[in-house]
TrEMBL record:
<keyword id="KW-0560">Oxidoreductase</keyword>
<feature type="domain" description="FAD/NAD(P)-binding">
    <location>
        <begin position="10"/>
        <end position="182"/>
    </location>
</feature>
<dbReference type="Pfam" id="PF07992">
    <property type="entry name" value="Pyr_redox_2"/>
</dbReference>
<dbReference type="InterPro" id="IPR050097">
    <property type="entry name" value="Ferredoxin-NADP_redctase_2"/>
</dbReference>
<dbReference type="GO" id="GO:0016491">
    <property type="term" value="F:oxidoreductase activity"/>
</dbReference>
<dbReference type="InterPro" id="IPR023753">
    <property type="entry name" value="FAD/NAD-binding_dom"/>
</dbReference>
<dbReference type="InterPro" id="IPR036188">
    <property type="entry name" value="FAD/NAD-bd_sf"/>
</dbReference>
<protein>
    <recommendedName>
        <fullName>Thioredoxin reductase</fullName>
    </recommendedName>
</protein>
<keyword id="KW-0285">Flavoprotein</keyword>
Length: 294
């Protein structure tokens, strides 16, 4: 089904089919509203669809990997009758009077919706590193499936992802792993898993090609500088906090832009994970129901 500004708009366009966006779309559909779920990738699940790691933190799905959860998300969307459109990368979100118009790459006619939910997550911070297959930016499947045996590896970043992936690369048989962190912020158990002699805390210098740190050359460099929210699609961005995340109302997930909601990692709320993302989807869906059915 194709919608334009002259047809009846969707009640909500949800951008991003990760746990937060999928949860929101499922609730909207089961509340009797008409959502459309737009996902840039070829399948729903967001970051979970790219994670082969076990997620033992979900009380309802012990032992499930991220890929398992993505399959469950796809099944839930199907059972709920959600209009899911994969391969639909939203290029921009504008507004005409009371209707939002979402331009999708490769689609001539924009999608019209009465409300918009931003659930597209965040992108790993690359900080100007060159596009090189030896430089791996961010965690996930690319690290899990990479061959590190016998290689010298530098890991940049002092958070959980930095230390967790340094330990993982060591387990994969890397000859040498050095972690560079301007400050150490990771959980104590992650820090303990990396030999103290492999950690350099404080300022460090990365070479122009991204493969040398403090003058030492490496076969691979893992960049774990965290994530940045993706707000570039909005013609008028909402108010943001000091980290660049949209400021949202606690009880509704609505941003400073009326009718625009933000949930999941992009919202930057406390403890971002699958469990909290699912809950944020519910909060936004119920708020939208109240808005459209006063």
């Amino acid at each position: 089904m194709t919608s334009d500004q002259d047809a009846d708009p969707f009640d909500c366009a949800v951008v991003g089919a990760g746990p937060a966006g999928a949860s929101c779309a499922v609730w909207l559909a089961r509340l009797g509203l008409r959502p459309v779920l737009l996902e840039a990738d070829a399948r729903p699940g967001g970051a979970t669809a790219k994670s082969p790691y076990r997620n033992d933190w979900l009380a309802t799905s012990p032992g499930a990997t991220g890929e398992d959860l993505a399959r469950q998300i796809a099944r839930s969307l199907e059972l709920s009758g959600v209009d899911l459109r994969c391969g639909a990368r939203v290029a921009s979100v504008g507004r005409e009077r009371d209707v939002f118009l979402l331009s999708v790459d490769g689609q001539a006619v924009p999608i019209a919706a009465r409300t918009v939910v931003l659930a597209g997550g965040c992108s790993p911070v690359a900080d100007g590193f060159p596009d090189d297959p030896r430089i791996l930016v961010g965690p996930g499947a690319q690290i899990f499936h990479h061959e590190f045996a016998g290689l010298d590896v530098a890991v940049l970043g002092g958070g959980d992802n930095g230390f967790e992936n340094a330990a993982f690369v060591l387990e994969k048989g890397a000859r040498r792993v050095d972690l560079y962190a301007r400050s150490v912020r990771a959980r104590p158990d992650f820090v303990a898993a990396v030999p103290a002699g492999s950690v350099t805390a404080g300022p460090y210098e990365v070479g122009a090609d991204g493969l040398a740190v403090n003058g030492r050359r490496y076969d691979r460099v893992l960049v774990m500088y965290g994530f940045r929210p993706d707000l570039g699609i909005l013609a008028t961005p909402p108010d943001t906090d000091a980290r660049g995340h949209p400021v949202t109302a606690r009880d509704t997930a609505e941003t400073s832009a009326s009718g625009v909601y933000a949930i999941g990692e992009i919202a930057g709320r406390a403890h971002p994970c699958v469990a909290t993302a699912l809950g944020e989807g519910v909060v936004a869906a119920k708020a939208i129901e109240r808005r459209l059915r006063p």
